Amino acid sequence: MAQPQTQAGSANGTSNGERQDPGGFKLKFCTVCASNQNRSMESHLRLAAANYPVISFGTGSLVRLPGPSIDKPNVYQFNKTSYDSMYKELESKDPRLYRANGLLNMLERNRGVKWGPERWQDWQIGAPRLQHNADRGSEGLEGGVPDVVITCEERCWDAVIDNLLERGSPLNRPVHVINVDIKDNHEEALIGGRGILDLADSLNKAATEEREANPSGFDSGIAGSRAGFDERVPEIIGEWQERWPNLPSVWTLGWF
Amino acid sequence: MATPTLSVEQQIKQLDEARKLVLSDATYYERIIQGILPIAAPGARVELRRWVADFLAETFASPWVPAHEKEKMSLIVLDTLKSMIENPQEDAAVVKSVVQTAASLYPVVVRRIINEPNDSQTWSKMLAIKLRILRIWDTATTGVRICCIKFAQRVVLVQTNGPAVDPRNGNPLEVSLSMVPPNHPLMPPMNLEAEASGLLDRMLSVFQENISDAVLVDATLNSLSILIRARPHIANRILNVILNFNPLKQANSPMTPKLRVMVKSMEKTTRSLLVHILKRDNQHPLAGKIQQYVERMMRSKSDIFDEVSRKRGPPEPTDGLDAAKRQKLAAQVTSAPPKFHVPPLDPGPHSVAELFTVTTDDALKAFDVAQLSEDMVVKIGITILQRIDVDMLNQAVEGVRKRLKIMSEIERLVVTSSTIPLDVEDDDDDYEPAEDTEQILNKLDAAPPAELVKLLPPAPEVALGKFKLPDPLPMSPEEVALAGRGVVDRLFGLMTSLDERDKKSKSAGFNRLAASTNDRDSWVTIITRIATRASAGLEEADGVKVEANRPTPFSMSNTIREEMYNYVFMDFRKRIDTAVQWLCEEWYNDRMQMKRGVDAILHYEKWVLRILDGILPYLDSQDRTLLIKFLGDIPGLSAEVLGRVTGLCVNPSTVNMALQSLLYLLVYRPPAKELVLAAVEDVWNTYEDARPVVVKLFVKYRPDYGERFKAAEGAERANGVPEVKEVAAT
Question: Considering only CB atoms, which chain B residues are within 8 Å of A223?
Answer without folding.
Answer: 92, 139-141
